[in-house]
Amino acid sequence: MRRARRDENMLRRHRDKDAGPESSGSAPEVEKPEDGWREELTPEQYAVLRQCGTEPAFTGEYWDCHDDGMYHCAACGTALFSSDTKFDSGTGWPSFTEPAVAEAVTLQKDASHFMVRTEVRCRRCGGHLGHVFPDGPGPGGQRYCINSAALKLDRR
Known about the structure:
By secondary structure, the protein is an alpha+beta fold. About 15% of the residues lie in helices and about 30% in strands. The chain has helices at about 1-10, 35-40, 45-50, and strands at about 10-15, 55, 70-75, 80, 85, 95, 105-110, 115-120, 130-135, 145, 150-155.
């Protein structure tokens, strides 16, 4: 209990109730009461995926992981990012140049913390994954900065 409280306190929350979607998307396919999510997810996963939290840099399970495989949503299991597009951004969070399937994620305007960013969410369950920035190395120039707590790696 004490560790769970500490983990939740370490997570920074960022929400903007007035933020609108940047890309069109439908309602999540997987819907359940918040109590259901609390039972299925660890406290850290719940804080990130359901409360739009951010894990501290350089602390997540996958920030320095170089294993091959597919990264899935920790809440609903949707395939999100391939290790083939993962790169070391030096930020302390797993970073990818693009989603494995573009339709697997939705993008929303996030105007919290006195800045404007683009939030990345799982299209299937609506879980908060992280943010995308226009400073990536790939041909699209994007850096998907994703919380480890939002992911589960299926190693090849």
